[in-house]
Amino acid sequence: MDKEIACPKCGFEQGKNTECTKCGIVFSKFRPDHRIASEESFQETDGKVQEAADFPDNSERWIYGTGKYALIALMGFFFFYMVIKRSSWCFLDHVNLPFHEFGHILFMPFSETIQFLGGTISQLMWPFILLVYFLRKKEHLSSAFCLFWFGENFLNISKYIADSRSMVLPLVGGGIHDWNFLLGKWGLLRYDHKIASTVFIAGVMIMTGSMIWAFLAKPSD
Predict the structure, then answer these.
(1) Alpha carbon distance 28, 6 (integer Å)
(2) What is the Cα–Cα distance from 159 to 154, expressed in whole angstroms?
């Protein structure tokens, strides 16, 4: 009786043959090192695919970078226009105005003081809500822009406060000057320019910080 041999590939024991009766390999042509090399090649290829998946496509990086620096340029333009040039009015002030007026309606059910303060609260509240929203989504570039908008509102508010005694700014629909009423009620009317300067400086610091944040921002995970 012929001695049984084991297939070098599948291990099936069989009689003396030229090829395996189970897996079909030809014994004389089988090279175990080919199998090992094939497995290593597969692992290397799979690793490269996984590595490529871990990093964004070059086109995605280009789109993100282009949008990022375009947004920073826009922020820089508004910063120059409002902080360095110190323009008396800006496009963003028109954006803030509806939020300000809506605040008076929103806080109307509360006390008279809160109603007058509601315009200022509202124009700060909405960019802050959006800031928190984008932070929760880890969208740092959008968060930085919302922080910039939040800081810009401080500049707008400082103009209104500085006008408390002179009251030369046009009011929507006439009515009572918010900060003339508030500072007068709190006995701070004579400090309107000092308070306005403090609010202005706070806005500049927030806007500066937001631009630095935007510059350092990376795509969300």
Answers:
(1) 14
(2) 9
Q: Is the pLDDT of residue 54 over 70?
A: no
Place of tokens 């000057």: 177
133, 79, 179, 132 alpha-carbon torsion, rounded to 10°: 10
20-33 pLDDT, tens digit each: 777 766 767 666 65
Q: Which residues are paired to 26 by β-bridges?
A: 19
- Sign, CA torsion 107/109/110/113: positive
User: Please, are residues 194 and 161 in contact by the beta-carbon 8 Å criterion?
Assistant: no
Judge if 104 and 186 occupy the same domain.
Answer: yes
> Domain range for residue 29?
5-53
Stated pTM of the model: 0.69
Q: State whether 20 and 127 are in the same domain.
A: no
